[in-house]
Amino acid sequence: MSTVYDCSEPSNRAAGLAAAAGAVRSGRLVVLPTDTVYGIGCDAFDAEAVRSLLDAKGRGPDMPVPVLVGSWTTIDGLVLSVPRQARALIEAFWPGGLSIVLPHAPSLAWDLGQTRGTVMLRMPLHPVALELLRDVGPMAVSSANRTGHAPAASAQEARDQLGDAVPVYLDGGLSGENIASTIVDLTGPDALILREGAVSKKEVDEVLGIEVEVAR
């Protein structure tokens, strides 16, 4: 059985966050609101939980799971290094709708899928998500939908698709514009926009001071 917690009511929000934190720490899944679309998440360092997340979505490890963080400084322990371009993007757009791909620290014991030594990181602009992340640490989070279906813009839409595969749903109301994050890849010699979403290419260009190429 799954439980939905209405986070607009203070006591339900506190109970929901406690239940979600307990679920994450015990290797289970949660659905949480973000500033883009609803996400399905788990402990980023629990490989079995990540596999459960992929199973719930109906997809394989060939599509790695991104990681959400609750603060700028968290990424310092997750990646090999934080280049100048990454710092500039973080300062401009975090928390917000920009994801950054960087080489992850080789010492980390996690399995997010076939990442080829990289990790996609984002800090969401949503108070419920941030409170949970600051409590439990980095979470592997993907859009809360079955593969091939539309991303969920509400907790109910997520529950309709994922059902009892997720024990805890945090209802933070309707998501923003239901637009996925923009993804900037900084693993190569030049910045590359893998997906244009909530943050425009023009905004990325202005922050980095260059014309950033878009992946074809």
TrEMBL record:
Catalytic EC class: transferase
UniProt feature coiled coil, ranges: none
Key words of the record: ATP-binding, Cytoplasm, Nucleotide-binding, Nucleotidyltransferase, Transferase, tRNA processing
Annotated compartments: Cytoplasm
Reactions it catalyzes: L-threonine + hydrogencarbonate + ATP = L-threonylcarbamoyladenylate + diphosphate + H2O
Annotated InterPro entries: DHBP_synth_RibB-like_a/b_dom (IPR017945), Sua5-like_dom (IPR006070), TC-AMP_synthase_SUA5 (IPR050156)
Gene3D superfamilies, A to Z: DHBP synthase
A GO cellular-component term linked to this record: cytoplasm
Keyword presence, Electron transport: no
SUPFAM superfamilies for the chain: YrdC/RibB (SSF55821)
Domain YrdC-like stretches: 14-199
GO molecular function terms attached to this record: ATP binding; double-stranded RNA binding; L-threonylcarbamoyladenylate synthase; tRNA binding
Pfam families per UniProt: Sua5_yciO_yrdC
EC number: 2.7.7.87
Single GO BP term: regulation of translational fidelity
Entry keyword Nucleotidyltransferase: yes
Entry's family note: Belongs to the SUA5 family.
Protein name: L-threonylcarbamoyladenylate synthase
Species whose genome carries this gene: Lentzea aerocolonigenes (Lechevalieria aerocolonigenes)
